[in-house]
Amino acid sequence: xxxxxxxxxxxKKRVNHINTDYRSLHSKHVVQQHSVRKSSSTSVRQxxxxxxxxxxxxxxxxxxxxxxxxxxxxxxxxxxxxVGKGLAAIQEELHRMRIQTKTQVDxxxxxxxxxxxxxxxxxxxGEVRKLPDFLVALRPHAVWEKTPVKLFxxxxxxPRPLVKWFKGDVPIxxxxxxxxxxxxxxxxxxxxxxxxxxxxxxxxxxARATNQYGxxxxxATVTVKRAAGGTGxxxxxxxxPHLTDIHPSKLEITLLERFRVTFGVEGGSTSLVCTxxxxxxxxxxxxxxxxxxxxxxxxxxxxxEMSVGRGSARLTLPHLAKDDxxxxxxxxxxxxxxxxxxxxxxxxxxxxxxxxxxxxPMSVKAFDINKDYVLVAWKPPNTTxxxxxxxxxxxxxEAGSDTWVQCNDSPVKxxxxxxxxxxxxxxxxxxxxxxxxxxxxxxxxxxxxxxALDPAxxxxxxxxxxxxxAVPGAPSHVHALEVFSSYLVLSWTPPSPRGPAPLWYxxxxxxxxxxAWQRINTAVKLHSPRYPVFDLExxxxxxxxxxxVNLYGSSEASEPTAPVQTGDAHGVPSAPGQVVATRNxxxxxxxxxxxxxxxKGMMGYYIDAxxxxxxxxxxxxxxxxxxxxxxxxxLVPGETYVFRVQAVNVFGLSEESQESSPVAVEPxxxxxxxxxxxxxxxxDGSSMTVAWKSPKVCxxxxxxxxxxxxxxxxxxxWKEVNASAVRERICTVENLKEGTFYEFKVQAGNLAGVGVPSAPxxxxxxxxxxxxxxxxxxxxxxxxxxGHSLVVLWKAPVYSxxxxxxxxxxxxxxxxxxxxxxxxxxxxxxRYLQVSHLEEGESYxxxxxxxxxxxxxxxxxxxxxxxxxxxxGTKEIAGGVDEETGDIFLSLEAxxxxxxxxxVWSKNYTPVGDCPRVAVSTKGRSSRLTFxxxxxxxxxxxxxxxxxxxxxxxSHTLTEDALNSMLELSYxxxxxxxxxKHGLNYEVLEKGHVRFWLQAVKLSAAASYRFIxxxxxxxxxxxxxxxxxxxxxxxxxxxDHFTRANEGxxxxxxxDGKAKNQSSLVLVGDVFKAALKxxxxxxxxxxxxxxxxxSEYLYFTVADDCTVMLACKVANVKKETTFHWFKDxxxxxxxxxxxxxxxxxxxxxxLFSRKDQGVYKATLSxxxxxxxxxxDISGQVFDDIINAIAQIAGSSASELVLQCTPEGIRLxxxxxxxxxxxxxxxxxxxxxIASSEKMRIGGTAEMAWMQICDPSDKEKxxxxxxxxxxAQTHARTFDLSGQAYTDAYEEYLRLKAAAFxxxxxxxxxxxxxxxxxxxxxxxxxxxxxxxxxxxxxVTWFKNEQEVAxxxxxxxxxEAGKFASLVITQVTPEDSGKYSINVRNKYGGEFVEITxxxxxxxxxxxxxxxxQPKGATPASTPMPxxxxxxxxxxxxxxxxxxxxxxxxxxxxPAPSVKSPTPFSTPASTPIPKSPTPGCRSPTPGCxxxxxxPKSPTPxxSVKSPTPxxFMKSPTPxxx
Length: 1518
Hints:
Helix content is about 10%, strand content about 40%.
């Protein structure tokens, strides 16, 4: 609601005469325009200034800039202590102070105005009413592109005219394009400056001067020219030579966005950027910028990168280290002096290489550089929670090398170390590592290059007198330069004259007063007048002396040093004094302390902080800070902290100071900043309603008062509008003169006083609003600002126009753009709008237009820019139910808060106020909105805003479903039940016991329960055991003997405090029968396990060699326990007897196949009982075993091997084991192959094969064998095409021809004995069956001589098959070696027979071959039956297994020896097997395909090849 304040009427004195004295007249005129105003006293004003200084420091400031003397501090503390005693008394004092201050200011303004006007002789009556008039009009300009232009004019009039600038007919707003336009008004000269013109700036510009008596306009044209050859935005500024002479210090620079306090991490990078507006902005004349760290100017280097131009100055630190921590200052040189900005950069320790290791040292520097000696010094790191530092390691690295060498073997305890043993003229880098009990820190930043040179060498090279001496003189002034407990450094002055020869030194030591000198650098040739001495006894006194040596000899000893006692003479500083922490900003605290009483070479301080209630200290700075005041940043707003300080020197860190008093992170108490955004909301001709926006800084206290001043636009004096404070940000100013332009300014007040006034508003004309459309909305604010959305809110317009406001339109534009977009095409009736689809990180401005029946009204003032980015740690409103009371609530935990913050809850963006349906409670950072009796009327969108923050807010839409869920939970809490994790259930235990149990989520120690079975309570007793465990929430009852009588319904009732619950289990019918069966089984199992038993019943595994192992595990056995295996009730005796004492018994089944199917049984027995395990290998079990075998075999399968045979081409795949039961598929060109006359498929125990009979070109292509194990398929391929097929086919043809020849050659089928014994005068008949195609020729020989047919010896060949040699009346001369040669064109066979003739009466000699004793030689053997020709279809592959016997026609008589082939025609040699050696279990078998032999097998030898239509059987197991 607007506050109506009537301005006091000013009584005008009548002027009876005109005083020609201008001073007198104008003084009276000016005095009438001023009134007495409130002022503040000197002491309170001093407090306000100090408080504003603390508040106006958004970034870190060197404490030296904020120094107060003791009196000021005392006065500040006194006023701050008593300022809260009473707001009423303070307001009264403020009122008095404001009046006094206003009076003084107004009197000064009056005097200044009178003095300025004294130089003019102006007719007063002529000035009272004078139209605007341009004394100096605008003139046209033609300028080059990218150069500035300035338009100026001088205007007069009374009242003083208001001048506005236009481009064309569009008003020029400097804020719409920052840096582009600048409007000035100095000494009556109005100017418009356009910086960095572009071609689009070519236009007609006008200055329009207006007062209440009229308007005057001056117009001029600005033409922007582009240089020849220039394109687009680029332009050669060399065409404007006079601009290149501008010095950077002549530029006008305004800093815009400034870098803030920055936080980095070791090893990372960061940039400090400050944007600016430069006039004129010339690319070849960049501004002059200088960067400082801790007041030391920085220079560009690999570690510091600087750039300036294009509207910004940037400092980049690409490789952060703690050395970079400090206060950074940017200093820009401008035509008005310098523009500066400072902020602190904090660099945290990187993650340690070892947990608990200290941070890296810093500020490593080299001093006292000599030929072979350098003194390295550094600063120690801060240790808050780490173990104390026990020492340091110093490393060096020669320039150009990547290898670091450790200088000291043991850690040095002070922050200095003399590095010696350097090479003269070499350049080195140094670094330092800290050590504690946990480990070694990361290395520090390395030093710059340090060259080991004698500082006196340059003087000698420049011709310094060295003298003509040969032997040098003795050194002088020998003394201890550095003395510590671990080492000391000797220093001396070189001899003079020293001679031209190279010089070195020898050093000796002795215990003070003993005179026992001992040389200490025998192994080191010392060239520098410095030498560190180690390994000295701490606390002992020593003396030292030095000799000078060159190639001519040694000098006398120098004078001994005075006795030097080792030890740390100073030690660490004492602890700092009292630590005081005070409020600074909403995220920082100012800490100041007293210095230590014993500084002892102190190099700075470390400040630590911890949150109140926490035990963990956190470092506030990571590099020693030299002053006694420090601002700690990045604290949690509203949190309470405690601080401590430690002093630092070369010996380490001092003891901690006493802790400061806890301090909350709140802004320091100060007056608020100025309000802004004054806008006109309504005017009726005699009064104006204005509104404004809240101060951006409240000063740590709630703003509770506003004071408004007004003045005529043509006067300088301000007049108070309201004597008493206005609490709302709207005010109606009355008793105004219609047609007059007025300006307004506003001051805000809080507990600390009245702040600075706002800038004067733009002149506003007091003219009655008569338009039909509504006036502008006001007070645009934002809530729930997130990365892609926000909610904009506003207040209704004061002026509604011809009718009530019916809605609002909201426009949005990006910051800096004038292109507004209307967000809602239809006006919204409520005064808020949620905006979505924003670009995260982008800034926007908004305006609102009110709508009534007459149309769309005037747009509101533009909102403040808002960035679409959520505050860090932002949380949304969460709904819940109180676990204790069951109340339904909405709550928000604020990410930041201050002492004056309030949580303002709204429903549908209307404040809930004191609504009886809800109650608001706040505790710390959280606020809760609790519903009294929630129902559907409470549905809607709830939001909350936290005042005096950077926009902390949140929202939540309460839906009907969510409310119903919370109502159910609320009912459950108010009518509690014992929550159950598991309802009543049962399980059967061993011994057949049955356990009934349930589990509650939690049980207290006072919980009670009872079991009810079939409506009868059961108590713990015989047969029942009832118990519970409160820790797990389990309640159980165990029934020892479960029988049919236990069928029924089981119920458990629980009471735990106010909560209760029950759970039931119906155990009847099939469910009960299953439980009873299981209980009986467990009882039997328990009994079974009393004797020997199987702990694991029979199961199978497959070994790597594909042997199937049946196994079982036994328990409770003894030596007398027997174990037996059975298959189909037939006992199986394995090779190795089962060992029951091992706990596991196995039965191997090698070469597993279908014949191994059956029911296997294992029995276990002794005097305590017997147990049996059955395992049925059939069906799925059999398939599982085969799959397991296939998995191993498939993994071991070789690549396909090509083998040629007389019958065709064979592909073979070798594997660990193969059986026909395995799922094996052969494919040709991805098509499955079925076994046929053309394609024959088979295998042995070691391989699978596929043979192509009589191959042709159709059989070319890829062949694949796939072995499936049920889970995966193992495939092997062979490409039978191209040269591979050609070679195989040729080999097949050769083998086929050889087999044909072997098959059809002449041979003896049978009938001849090996040895014949016959008595003389008997007839001998040697008859045999011969075969061959064509019919062979038969020749007989005796003792290798051919036998011709005669009367004594008859040779016959009947039917081309039966050959005979008959000798009648044999004589001893007929004894000898007979042979028969059977041959045709394919070859033949030669068979020998030994004939022995003995005389009658002699004893028959022993037969040597073939026949046993008692053979009847006189008998003529009957010719055998005619044998049939051999089978024309040979068997394709050999087999290791026995095969059926051949037909009788192919089986010789038992006494007939297998004929041996005599020869083979050269045209058909016997082929050798092309297949490489195989792993055959049969000895002597080197090839799975034997050499083809005669179809007639040898005597007593069966055919190794089964018929092609028979499958290869599996050999029997042992």
